[in-house]
Amino acid sequence: MINWFIGFLAIVIISLIITELILAKKKKIKIYNFSDSFTNFFCGMLERVFDVFFSILALYVFHYVYDNYAIFNIPSNIYTWLLGVLVTDFIAYWFHRWSHQVNFLWAAHIVHHQSEELNITTVFRVSFFAVVFRACFFFWMALAGFDVFIIVTTSLFLGVYQLFTHSRVIGNLGVLEYFLTTPSHHRVHHARNEKYMDKNYAHIFIFWDRIFGTFTKEEEEPDYGITSGFDSANAYNATFSYWKNLFIRAKKAKRFSDKLSVFFKGPKWTPSDVEHLKPVFKSDQNGDRIHQEFRLPVKKMWYTFFSSLITLSCFLSLMIYKSSLGEEINIIELITNQYILILLFIILISIYSHSIMLENKGHSFVIELVRLLIIPFAVLIGFRDVSNYYLITISSFLYCSGLIIWSFAIFKNQNIFDWTNRTSKYQIK
């Protein structure tokens, strides 16, 4: 059943992206950037592969708390399901709000705001740190007595709803604007304009923002992204760069209280003695902000697309295989499962290879070549017990061999062994 659901969800997402592209073309607006969109997907993959392991631990804790320490015995019926949606959205509002107001939470959430585009792929640009923090907030629903299935399902509904709100092609929705979070509301939330900042945190019901004084209406087209800007198409940089900056500031700060405050105060605050270490936006000679402009040659774009199909197939295989193991599997069995480990290895090294390719780094060819040489042999050695072993093995050898030949043609005019070659951080030509 879960396999069909994953397949159906993939078809829905692809259909929505195509629809959005068509509508954007009709409105004559450009909302997709190849490198940015793929970075979004790769960030999402990192988050999901981590959740393969973390979800087992989280569900165990939730079930244990619900079975042993639940304060109320809340029955499972239509009314409690509706209440569950309302409570989930209320908690999500405060988690989202505090993720903009507490620095260590912002370090997890900033990933979602780094893109200077806004489209359906932005939904997938999340950090696996956010998974952990979000679980800590929803833990209280299990303690209150909500069935774990209600918690998981309503949380999933919140996630799916975001496919609707992350859009620039849907305009004002009339009366719905008064009680639902619409694309117009969420465009405001993703803006870095001073008048729009720290507004519209709600996921489903916009009245939370109206009640708690964080609502504002969209007027002019927002300027998307974070105030400091972000100069990388690397999914690992997206996930870890702000954490790195936090620890550097905490280490360099002289007072112990300041070291702690770096993590627990707001993103706008930093100790005066390390003010120079705080991320600031890059500007041109006139002082104007330099916007992200990640661009790849068309040939490399197509190569990256077909190369990433291996990563996508491994990712989907990991999701399907993990679900086939059932809910009874424990974390030890999972981390020692050879199929899980091989798929995880291929996905992680692939995301790194794709990331430096999106940044057009000089050594990207070398990393990609190593990846393509490793993958078929990993399949050959690790999947002998799989029913379609011979088909998968032969296909992987043929596909990777084809990509190797193609890559030599694509990268022949590039200094492939130059590990110091760095193009502009904002414009990749």
**Largest sheet, order of strands side by side?**
1-2
Structural class, please? mainly alpha
User: Which stretches are low in confidence, meaning pLDDT under 50 for 5 or more residues running?
Assistant: 422-429
Figure out the total of helices: 15
Largest sheet: 2 strands, parallel
Query: Beta-sheet strand percentage?
Result: under 5%
Residues in helices, as a percent range? 55-70%
Radius of gyration: 23 Å
One letter per element, helices H and strands E, the order comes to HHHHHHHHHHEHHHHHE
From the spread of the alpha carbons, the general shape counts as: globular
Count of folded domains: 2
Overview of the structural elements:
With 429 residues, the protein is mostly helical. Residues 422-429 have low confidence and may be disordered. It has helices spanning 2-27, 34-69, 78-98, 103-113, 128-144, 148-165, 183-189, 207-212, 235-252, 256-264, 298-324, 331-335, 338-358, 364-382, 389-411; strands at 293-294, 427-428. The longest helix has 36 residues, at 34-69. It contains 15 helices and 2 strands. The protein folds into 2 domains: 2-212, no CATH class; 296-422, no CATH class.
